[in-house]
Structures are given as structure tokens and as C-alpha cells.
């Protein structure tokens, strides 16, 4: 037993110390019902004295330096450029067609005037590329998406799915925006199920060409960014059909990617056989020109096949180092995972903006107060703290988790390690789904937290909410992605019992399956002290215990239902259970990375502030799912109450340093406050902020 067992022993009589059995019973009794002076029962004193504690000293600049890391300079270049060009800042009221042209001019300005060339970093330095994406997306989300379509999707497909000949031919034009392009994967009838797409590419050995065909209306490429107005090329995903010895038959080799020119490079006219239609006005992101593409037997050279994972020779012979359609498809999608990484990271950027606006407003806005006393800040109300402080804690947690994801992604691009590829694929799916869903909900909470003034378009919540909403769908529907995470967890679970090893991200389950599935310890289930509840080991153990229980019970249920419903029916029967499992696992990964980030912080005051925020993140989530822990007696009733009280107290303490915490995001005014019309941010806000408090 730990050293805590020595304290009760000092209360034993000499006779009791002579009797080992009596002594053990007495020890256990004191653990389960500790006296008031026992060190595991002093949290009440902390809670009563919370208002008298001195405010924590936090240096926002030092904390910001740790948060923003080594790519802060390139982000500042983006912000400084747009601050110097108010004519390129998006006005509140703008027509769709004007918005698209403004967004194109914004992109040209970043690349050609500011001299920021993101494309070269896509493979060489992904962390720097994603830092640029976050900055431009903070200025205007449409700009961030348009830049991502050009460089991550169109450019990334050329780099990651093509070979040297493609890079030599297209790199410079993609980099300098001469070759504006699209990423044509989604079809009218197929989005998430990419293997079900119907567009076909048939090889013609007589002319050494592929014939790209849209066989029916359901195969029209839909929601294709850059297609409606600006795109000149498209990476088109289609089923590769090769002629067989029987001239009337073709062989389906699975989904491949092809470079298809869609507009003339000089005249910008649509090329023969290509039909382009405009998807029209959307809920958000109207600076991006989404369009629909139909191909009527469009012929392209054989060299336009992006042939990294499969090639066709002059005589129509197919070669690949990967033996099956499924392996080639998995390799193809694995190389496109950067889009999910970028979306997860960018979504955190949106959450930073929204929480900054809402918290700054809540600190300045005053309503009601004690009788005959001045009105108080609305952030002094516990209800406002409950809305915004856990959200601020989650923003910090998500930041470090997505930074970790980018680091793993960068390592994957360098090493091409198969295990790391699988790890990043599952982790990016989980974080993209979890973070974007959380941010979408939080945007509405931030708007509501700012009352009527939050409804003013100038204060960005409406545009942020509308622009970000689609993050939950593109690059993989969030519900589908969570199922991928759950499927991978179950696969790892099965491998364990076959003598295999867990992937790096799931490594904690090695211990969990053996330790956390045993009966909860009746002693630790009752420990209530602040030191214990704020111990990272307790927090991680609780998260891991929940995930392990969910994983084991999901496996048991699936095994049971498969006997009567088959594998598909069993999966559907257990689907909500599986989604909860995936979310629990992702929350565990997020907490692990937050704890590590706190440990690694070099500045003591910043570290103390982040420890406070990290504890709030962990205990708030434990309390939100306290029923699960109570049902299995992992947490005793009094301990559950202690967790609730401590979470309230931590929320109060985080409120006291909330200004410094959001200041550390270091967002410029033209990002957290949208300009009205063509005025500068200062002119636009001078009168409005005088009585609103923004």
C-alpha cells in the first residue's frame, strides 16, 4: 500500500497493533471512512477558501510562445499582409460572385504579393503548411478551403499519387497558381463510399489514351471546389477499365486517379466533352466556387494516370507492387489523409476565434449585481463559466492533440512506415470527427453566450458557424469516421488475444485490458482529496478504464449478435455503442497529449496555468459521464460529489485567468472582429464597441 496507509495506523491502540486481522480491518475502515483531518478529505477547505486565493500570475506572451511554436513567424506574415490590405478583408455583405473573385484575389495576394508559397511545404514541412492553413483560414474560412483545395487536394494528389514525371510537369504551375485545380472524387450518388463511385476510365490501346466517362447522372462529380469558375485541371477518381483478351469484355482494376484538363489554359473556355455546372449558393463558404463535372468520353494521354500505386503499359498491361484492389485503394486513401489532419487543426483555429470573442465579451459585459452595488461581469456568473470555461479548456486540449497529430503525420511522410500510416489514418479520422463536431456545437454556445449582440453579423459567429458546419461532412462524414476508429480498436483488441501487439496510439490498451477490467478498487474509489483528483494518473486511469470497458462490452455484444444478425446487422445493432467507444478513446488520446504538453512547458507560470486548464478538461469530462463510473462503482457517491465541486472550483479559477489564456492565442483584431464594408477594423468598431463591450 502507498504511504497514505501509515496515517491511519497511528490511530491504532497497542492491542489492535498486536492483532494483524483486527489491524487490517481497522486500516480498511479508516480508508473507507477517513476522519476529517485525513489528507484525503481536505478538498472542502480548498473549495471554501477558493475566493480568497490570489490570482495566478500568467504571462500571456510566454504562454503564446509555447502554444504557437516555431511557425509563428509565417503566421504573422499572413496576418500582417491582410492588415495592410483592408481591401482584401471580407466585408459583411457581399454577393456570391463577388465573394468568389475576392477569395481568388486573396489567394493570389498571399502567394504572389506576400510571397508565401505553401505548396513546397506540403511534403517537405507539413507542420509549416498547416500553420499557414490555420492563419489564412482565420482571416477567411473560404480562403483557407480554397487554398487547401489547390495545394492539399489537387496539388497533394499530384505529389502523393503521381511519380516524378508528374511533379516535374505540374509542380511550378500549381505552386504559382497558373495551374488552378480541383479534386474530383465525390459524386452525386457516392460520397463516403468512394469504392462505389461510377465514373470510369477505359484504356484505348489503339490511341494510347484513357477515355473518361460519366455513365449516368448519379456519377456526376459533385461539390467540386474550384470547378465552377477558376479550375483548369481536375484530379478525377474513376474505375480503371482495361480490355481483356475477349474484346467484348473489360477488367475492373479498381479506383485510380487521373489528371483531366477541364479548361483551356489560354482562353479559360471549357474543353470539349467536359460539362461544368455551378452548385450555386451554399449555407457557407460561398467564396469557394463549388461545381459539378460531367465527362462525355473525354480522352487524356496515358501519362495522365497518377501511377504511384498502379500503372498501365503501352500494350495495356497492368502492373502494381500491391496485389489486390483493396490494398491499392487503401494505399491511395492513406496518402490523402493530410486533408483530415488539416481540417482537425483548422477547426481548433475556429474554436480559438469563437472562444476569444465570447470570453472577451463576457469579461467586459456587465448585467445585474447585488442590491445597490455596481453590475458585475457576466463571466462572474457560474452559468456563463459553465458554458465557456470547459470550452476554453477543450480548446487548449485540442490544440496540443492536433499538434501531436501533425508531428506524427510529418514523421509518416518521411518514413512511410506502414504501422505509422495506419496509426495516423485512425488518429486523424478520430480527431477530425471529434474536434469538428465539438467546434460546431461550441459556435452556437458562444453566440448564445453573447446574447443579442452575438447575433450581429459583424461579430462573426454567424459566418463562422455557417462556414465551419461542412467540416463535419467533407473529408469523411464524422459518423463514418468514428466507425473507422471503433473498427480499428476492435481489430487491435482481437489481435491482442492472438498474441499480437497494439499500435502506438492504442498502446495504453495493453495494460487496460489486463488491469482496468478488474473490479474497481474499493479504497481508491472513495479517495476525495484535491491532490488525488488532480493527479494525472487518476484522470488517465479513469479515461482508460471507461474506454476499456466499452471496448470489451462492444466485442461481447458484436459476437453475440453476429450469430443471429450477421456481421453487418450486428454492427448496426451496436452502432451507438461503437460511436461512444470511439469518442471515449479519442478523449483519452487528447488528455494524454495535454498532460504531456503541460509537463514539457519550460515556463513555470505557464505550466501552472496549463495544469489548471488540463485538470478542468479532465474532471469536467469525468463528471459529464459520472453515471458510467457510478454504475460500476469506479467512483463512490462522495467522490462523485467531490469531482463536481472541484470542477466548479477549477472553472472559477480558470475564469480568473481567462483573459490571459485567450490573449495567448495572439489573434489580430481583424481576425476576432470582422470589418464592416471596406472600413478598417478600428473605424468600423469605434462607435459599435463603445456601448457593446466587444
TrEMBL record:
It is found in: Peroxisome. GO terms for cellular component: peroxisome. Residues 1-10 have a biased composition (Low complexity). It holds the Pfam family Acyl-CoA_dh_M. Its main location: other. Residues 535-690 form the Acyl-CoA oxidase C-terminal domain. Gene3D superfamilies: Butyryl-CoA Dehydrogenase, subunit A, domain 2 (2.40.110.10), Butyryl-CoA Dehydrogenase, subunit A, domain 3 (1.20.140.10). One of its GO terms (molecular function) is FAD binding. Residues 1-21 are annotated as: Disordered. Residues 182-298 form the Acyl-CoA oxidase/dehydrogenase middle domain. Residues 334-489 form the Acyl-CoA oxidase C-alpha1 domain. PANTHER family: ACYL-COENZYME A OXIDASE, ELECTRON TRANSPORT OXIDOREDUCTASE. Belongs to the acyl-CoA oxidase family. This is Acyl-coenzyme A oxidase. It comes from Deinandra increscens subsp. villosa.
Amino acid at each position: 500500500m502507498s504511504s497514505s496507509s501509515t496515517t491511519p495506523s497511528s490511530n491504532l491502540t497497542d492491542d489492535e497493533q498486536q492483532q494483524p486481522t483486527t489491524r487490517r480491518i481497522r486500516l480498511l475502515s479508516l480508508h473507507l471512512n477517513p476522519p476529517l483531518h485525513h489528507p484525503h478529505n481536505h478538498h472542502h477547505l480548498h473549495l471554501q477558501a477558493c475566493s480568497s486565493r490570489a490570482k495566478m500570475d500568467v504571462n500571456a506572451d510566454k504562454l503564446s510562445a509555447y502554444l504557437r511554436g516555431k511557425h509563428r513567424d509565417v503566421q504573422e506574415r499572413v496576418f500582417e499582409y491582410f492588415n495592410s490590405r483592408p481591401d482584401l478583408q471580407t466585408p459583411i455583405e457581399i454577393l456570391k460572385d463577388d465573394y468568389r473573385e475576392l477569395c481568388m484575389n486573396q489567394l493570389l495576394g498571399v502567394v504572389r504579393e506576400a510571397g508565401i508559397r505553401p505548396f513546397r511545404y506540403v511534403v517537405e514541412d507539413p507542420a509549416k503548411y498547416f500553420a499557414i492553413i490555420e492563419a489564412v483560414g482565420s482571416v477567411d474560412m473560404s480562403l483557407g478551403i480554397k487554398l487547401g483545395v489547390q495545394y492539399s487536394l489537387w496539388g497533394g494528389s499530384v505529389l502523393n499519387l503521381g511519380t516524378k514525371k508528374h511533379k516535374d510537369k505540374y509542380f511550378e504551375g500549381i505552386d504559382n497558381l497558373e495551374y488552378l485545380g480541383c479534386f474530383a472524387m465525390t459524386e452525386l450518388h457516392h460520397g463516403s463510399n468512394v469504392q462505389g463511385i461510377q465514373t470510369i476510365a477505359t484504356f484505348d490501346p489503339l490511341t494510347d489514351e484513357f477515355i473518361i466517362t460519366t455513365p449516368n447522372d448519379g456519377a456526376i462529380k459533385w461539390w467540386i471546389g474550384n470547378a465552377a469558375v477558376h479550375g483548369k485541371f481536375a484530379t478525377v477518381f474513376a474505375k480503371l477499365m482495361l480490355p481483356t483478351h475477349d474484346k467484348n469484355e473489360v477488367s475492373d482494376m479498381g479506383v485510380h486517379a487521373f489528371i483531366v484538363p477541364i479548361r483551356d489554359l489560354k482562353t479559360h473556355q471549357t474543353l470539349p466533352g467536359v460539362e461544368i455546372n455551378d452548385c450555386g449558393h451554399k449555407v457557407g463558404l460561398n467564396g469557394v466556387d463549388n461545381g459539378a463535372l460531367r465527362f462525355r468520353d473525354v480522352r487524356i494521354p496515358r501519362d495522365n494516370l497518377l501511377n504511384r500505386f498502379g500503372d498501365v503499359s503501352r500494350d495495356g498491361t497492368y502492373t502494381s507492387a500491391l496485389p489486390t484492389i483493396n490494398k491499392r485503394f487503401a494505399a491511395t486513401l492513406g496518402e490523402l489523409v493530410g486533408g483530415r489532419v488539416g481540417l482537425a487543426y483548422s477547426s481548433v483555429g475556429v474554436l480559438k476565434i469563437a472562444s476569444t470573442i465570447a470570453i472577451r465579451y463576457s469579461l467586459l459585459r456587465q448585467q445585474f449585481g447585488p442590491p445597490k452595488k455596481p453590475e458585475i461581469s457576466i463571466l462572474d456568473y457560474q452559468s456563463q463559466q459553465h458554458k465557456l470555461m470547459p470550452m476554453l479548456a477543450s480548446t487548449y486540449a485540442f490544440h496540443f492533440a492536433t499538434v501531436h497529430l501533425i508531428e506524427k503525420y510529418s514523421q509518416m511522410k518521411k518514413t512511410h512506415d506502414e504501422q505509422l500510416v495506419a496509426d495516423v489514418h485512425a488518429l486523424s479520422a478520430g480527431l477530425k470527427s471529434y474536434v469538428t463536431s465539438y467546434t460546431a456545437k461550441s459556435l452556437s454556445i458562444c453566440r448564445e453566450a453573447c446574447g443579442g449582440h452575438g447575433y450581429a453579423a459583424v461579430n462573426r459567429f454567424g459566418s463562422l458557424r455557417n462556414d465551419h458546419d461542412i467540416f463535419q461532412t467533407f473529408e469523411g462524414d464524422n459518423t463514418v469516421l468514428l466507425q473507422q476508429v471503433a473498427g480499428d480498436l476492435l481489430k487491435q483488441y482481437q489481435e491482442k488475444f492472438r498474441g499480437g501487439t497494439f499500435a502506438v496510439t492504442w498502446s495504453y490498451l495493453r495494460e487496460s485490458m489486463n488491469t482496468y477490467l478488474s473490479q474497481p478498487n474499493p479504497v481508491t474509489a472513495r479517495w476525495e482529496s484535491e491532490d488525488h483528483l488532480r493527479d494525472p494518473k487518476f484522470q488517465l486511469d479513469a479515461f482508460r478504464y471507461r474506454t476499456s470497458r466499452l471496448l470489451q462490452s462492444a466485442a461481447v455484444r458484436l459476437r453475440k449478435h453476429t450469430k443471429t444478425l450477421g456481421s453487418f446487422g450486428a454492427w448496426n445493432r451496436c452502432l451507438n455503442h461503437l460511436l461512444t467507444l470511439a469518442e471515449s478513446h479519442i478523449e483519452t488520446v487528447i488528455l494524454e497529449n495535454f498532460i504531456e504538453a503541460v509537463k514539457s512547458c519550460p515556463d513555470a507560470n505557464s505550466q501552472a496555468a496549463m495544469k489548471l486548464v488540463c485538470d478542468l478538461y479532465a474532471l469536467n469530462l469525468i463528471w459529464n459521464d459520472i453515471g458510467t463510473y457510478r454504475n460500476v462503482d469506479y467512483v463512490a457517491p462522495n467522490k462523485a460529489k467531490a469531482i463536481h465541486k472541484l470542477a466548479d472550483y477549477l472553472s472559477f479559477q480558470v475564469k480568473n485567468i481567462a483573459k490571459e489564456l485567450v490573449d495567448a492565442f495572439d489573434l489580430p483584431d481583424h481576425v476576432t472582429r470582422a470589418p464592416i464594408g471596406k472600413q478598417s477594423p478600428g473605424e468600423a468598431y469605434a462607435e459599435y464597441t463603445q456601448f457593446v463591450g466587444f
